[in-house]
Design brief:
By secondary structure, the chain is mainly α. It is flat. Helix 1 crosses helix 3 and helix 3 runs antiparallel to helix 4. The relative contact order is 0.16. It is about 80% helix and about 0% strand. It is built from four helices and no strands.
Amino acid sequence: MPWIYLVLAGLLEVVWAVGLKYSEGFTRLVPSVVTGVAMLASFWLLAIALKTIPLGTGYAVWVGIGAVGTALLGMVVFREPATVARLLCIGLIVAGIVGLKLTTR
C-alpha cells in the first residue's frame, strides 16, 4: 500500500505543477485552489508512504514521477519540444524510478 500512496503522491505532483502554469502566478482562483489542494494531498500521501519506504527512495521516486509526468504533459499540452534527447533523458528517469523500486524492500 505505501507504494500506491507514493505513486498517487507523484501523480498529484504533476497536477500541482501543471496547475502552477494555469494559475498564472496564483492570479486565477480556480487553478490556484486546485494547485493548493493537489499540493497538500501530494505532500500528505508522500508523508504516509515515507512511514514505510526509505526517505531517499521515496523522495526520489516522488520527484521522478512528477518530473516525468510534467515533462510529458508539457510536450503534449503546451507543445514543448519532444526531441529525441529529451525523450531519452525522460527514459533514464523512468529507469531510475524502476530501479529504485526493484532494489527497495
